Amino acid sequence: MSKVLSRIGRRRALQGAAAGFVAFGLLLWWLLPLGEEPPSGTITFSTGTPRGVYQRYGTLLRTELSKDMPNLEVQLMTSDGSQENVARVATGEVDFTIAAADAVETYELNNGPGADRLRGVARLYDDYVHLVVPRGSDIQSVADLRDRRVAIGPPRSGVRLIATRVLKTAGIDAQRDITPLSDGIDTGPSRLKRGEIDAFFWSGGLPTDGLKQLADTFDFRFVPIDADFVSELHRQGRATHYYRSTNMPESAYGTAQNGATVPTMAVSNVLITRKDMDPELIEWLTRTVIKSRDGIGAHVHSAQLVDLRTAIYTDPLPLHEGARRYYRSVKP
User: Fold this and answer.
1) Rounded distance, CA 307 to CA 303, Å?
2) Phi and psi for 149 in degrees, rounded to 5?
3) In the prediction, which pLDDT does 121 show?
4) What is the DSSP letter of 117?
5) Per-residue pLDDT tens over the stretch 234-265
């Protein structure tokens, strides 16, 4: 009987080992394209302003890429934001970037140089519009910004694009009816704290570090942008239809919101490249973007929203062929 049990035990052990090998093989298939050498060389990636989510995400993604493609050098470049990022990729100044969908569409509608070469890699996460004022400010709506000192973001940023459109919807000309300043998330919070500006616009993932840090030392609040206002905004043209009405979750900035949601608007971010980029490199990079979601998300909360089911929706751009290959390879 003991010999029979021994044979059964050995058989079960072999079966267990085989099952483990299969599971390990499937894991490798998910993580890395088997039988291929990782791409090497140098790529450039345009991020955003210091203390912004684009810059933080790009830094963390570079670390993840180095694990999968150790011979690939990733050079990061800071930027004003979405508008500059789109132009850099389209004209070949950089290879990859993150940009808001409205900025991509605007570049295409304006027939920017190289617009037809732009391609999507993955839809990432949504940017939320923040209109920030001191807690004791009498500014209660966008219309109340008239004749105030307002930071509307750097000239080539996505923030500037959105702020100008939001102000226009309220009947305010950004160059004549306010004192416009070019501060972004790197300098806007400190200038608001010092009383040098009355309000500033920011568009970024939740939460943004620059605002979390401000909340620790300064009492501020958000001016609401409601659904009716966003509907009016849509009348400005095709690119504005990428804005959707939403609520900033009550937990985004804790004390700044006093446990309440804030009506605002959001726009999706897309990881973009050019049509001429190597499909194999794009396939590997797309794989890393998807599988590193939780690792990056532990540091950039908004990155937790990267999802295989929605990543393929890179509107207004068609998918790059390399990204398409990856999504097809993991399709159920």
Assistant:
1) 9
2) -90, 110
3) 98
4) G
5) 999 999 999 999 999 999 998 888 889 999 99
Whether 15 has a pLDDT exceeding 80, the answer reads no
What stretch of H or E contains 46? strand 41-46
**119, containing H or E segment:** strand 118-134
Rounded (5°) CA angle 38-58-212: 150
Query: What is the 3-state composition of the chain as percent helix, strand, coil, each rounded to the nearest 5?
Result: 45, 20, 35
Q: What does the DSSP assignment read for 262-280?
A: EEEEEEEEEEEEETTS-HH
CA distances from 138 to 141, 198, 223, 229 (A): 9, 10, 10, 20
Three-state SS at 45: strand
Q: For residues 234 and 144, is the Cβ–Cβ distance under 8 A?
A: no
Q: At residue 298, what is the residue type?
A: A
Q: How confident is the model at residue 56 (pLDDT cuts 50, 70, 90)?
A: very high
Contact 120, 88 (CB under 8 A): no
Long-range own/partner contacts, residues 278-283 (CB < 8 A, 24 or more apart): 278/39, 278/322, 279/320, 279/321, 279/322, 279/325, 280/36, 280/39, 280/322, 281/39, 281/43, 281/72, 281/322, 282/121, 282/320, 282/321, 282/322, 282/323, 282/326, 283/33, 283/322, 283/323, 283/325, 283/326
- The pLDDT tens digits for 218-236 are 999 999 999 999 999 999 9
Query: How many C-beta atoms lie closer than 10 Å to residue 276's C-beta?
Result: 10
pLDDT digits (tens, 9 = 90+) for 78-116: 999 999 999 999 999 999 999 999 999 999 999 999 999
Report d(CA 211, CA 268) in Å as an integer.
20
The pLDDT value given to residue 331:
80
Amino acid found at 24: F
Confidence of residue 25 (pLDDT cuts 50, 70, 90): very low
Closest CA to 162 of 266, 256, 259, 80: 266
CA 161 – CA 180 distance, rounded (Å): 13
